[in-house]
Amino acid sequence: MPLPDPVLCPLCGQPNRCAMEVQRATGAAQPPCWCMQVEFPADLLARVPAQAQRIACICAACAREGKAA
Q: Where are the chain's structural domains?
C-alpha cells in the first residue's frame, strides 16, 4: 500500500494547505499553520486511515464538517 501524500487531506483527498508541509517541501519559512490552533474532535481523528495518521493533515473543510457533525 502506497504511503499517503502529506499535502492531501486523508479524508477527502483535496489539498490540505498545511503550512508545515509547505515549509518542509520548500524550505521557506511559513507562519504557524491554522491546524496547530484547532482541536480536532476524537471521532474525526478516528476516521483518518491508520497509514495516514501523523503524516497527512485533515483539511479545513473536513475539520469544519467534523465539528458540525
A: 19-68
